Amino acid sequence: MSSATSVIEPVVFRWHRAEIVAIAPVTPHVTSVRLRCGLAAAYRAGQHVDVRLTAEDGYQAQRSYSIASAQDGSGTFELMIEGLPDGEVSGWFSQAAAVGDHVELRGPIGGSFSWDGPDGGPLLLGGGGSGVVPLLAMLRRRAQGWRQIPAALIYSVRTRAEAIALAELESLAAADPNVSLHLATTREAGGRRIDAALVGDALARLGPPGKVFLCGSNRFVAAASDLIMAAGVAPGLIRTERFGA
Questions:
Q1: Per-residue pLDDT tens digits for 144-167
Q2: Most buried pick, 18, 57, 125, 234, via CB within 10 A?
Q3: Is the CB of residue 30 less than 8 Å from the CB of residue 132?
């Protein structure tokens, strides 16, 4: 008589069917996609999901995207997807996807790069380009009940027109004395890259951070980490997520 051992696949590794319920442009290159899926019932701000597309001939392509929304009980969550040249998945979302279409999702992923109100702060957040998306989710989560936790966002982007959710971020910083926004535009007249002065301004508003989250390209994260540590922040407080070159 033979026996077999049953293996239970962890939920995070299972693919789940998701339906697009809303889709809209955010910037000239970024699309907001809201999806209805069972995964919306259990995720933390800062986490990401894998998205898989399957063509009629069986060809599959997948890519990871950070979740932009905070849990709200709606059974949905939002991704903000940057269209990339020759991007198989991002190109489909920006050019062909429509409400009612279905994709597959796996996750949520990223336990160490995540935050919830009880984790505390103050929060020092740094995003480069589309790397602001998981940090936006953290700020949205904070706004749901933890406004007493100070937060400062350093955001580096090429131009204001390419800044994701800039109106929302500026409105939040104007209305909430515990939030400050430090924007660096790298390809506009009078713009700047992140530097010691910008980091110093953020820390002066925030005070000593309790949590630091940085997300963006390898170059951005390395530069931001060095500047923040040079300002006296302990390396052990810094959590990073990197993409691209």
A1: 999 999 999 999 999 999 999 999
A2: 125
A3: no
Q: Which residue ranges does the chain devote to CATH 2.40.30.10?
A: 11-109
**Residue 49, SS3?**
strand
Cβ atoms of 32 and 24 within 8 Å: the answer is: yes
The yes/no answer on whether domain 11-109 falls in CATH 2.40.30.10 is: yes
CA 54 to chain centre: 25
Quick one: average pLDDT of 191-200? Answer: 94
The helix or strand, by DSSP H or E, that contains position 18, with its residue range, turns out to be strand 16-27
What stretch(es) of the chain map to CATH 3.40.50.80? 117-243
What single string gives the DSSP state of each residue in 198-229?
HHHHHHHHH-S-SEEEEEEEHHHHHHHHHHHH
How remote is the C-alpha of 172 from its chain's centroid?
A: 17
Distance CA 199, CA 195 (A): 6
What topology does CATH give the domain 117-243?
Rossmann fold (3.40.50)
pLDDT in tens, 38-52: 999 989 999 999 999
